[in-house]
Amino acid sequence: MAFDVKNKTVLVTGANRGIGKSILEEALSRGAKKVYAAVRQIESAESLVAEHGDKVVPVRVDLEDADSITAAAQTAADVDVVVNNAGVLKQKSAIDAGAIEALQFEMNTNVYGLMRVAQAFAPVLISNGGGAFVQLNSVASVKTFSNMATYCASKAASYSITQGLRDSLREQGTLVVSVHPGPIQTDMGQEAGFGDMAASPSLVATATFDAIAEGHFHVWPDPMAEQVGTAYQSFAENVVEADVQ
Asked: Which of 3.30.300.30, 2.40.50.140, 3.40.50.720, 3.40.640.10 would CATH assign to domain 9-240?
């Protein structure tokens, strides 16, 4: 189930910086006619509008605020591709003080936020012919790192929900894509201390739209992710992507 973004309308959450900004720019470079920059603060997208003109339309979306997502779905009623990129990270091990609170915070955005976006935009996508729904997960969705165990747990849950969306939205003709970056040069990556090992956000953007064009579910966009994806490939193909009865 491949999809061409040329002359289509795209929405990207967290589009004002990092991976989201690269995804917005990649969408435009591939011929998208319009991209909704879904951000918590509208003014944070002003530089994108200044650079790209009326091809970028800011819209308020806070993944913790269901009403903002519902309103955005009404505004972006012409959207063909939804990329849910926004997410949060708290560096907590499972035994750190505040770990439970950190996990609650991460789940609310990384998992419940994903579900809010999917529930709001699934009817929009079907009304526009099916399109594509992309979720930015992480290598942390299949491998837990002890110093960020709560984040990994939230990403494992978001990956699980994404698998469910793949099957649910396939019935309406919507392609679902699960993107699993490793360390990336973003504000979040800097806070996590990835340093020189982090890859460019442009790798994520390119691989994401390649997957949309080719109809792939899993995306492992950078060197570390490729290593994980290679090791995970058999399970992905024979279990996750298989029709297991």
From this structure: 3.40.50.720
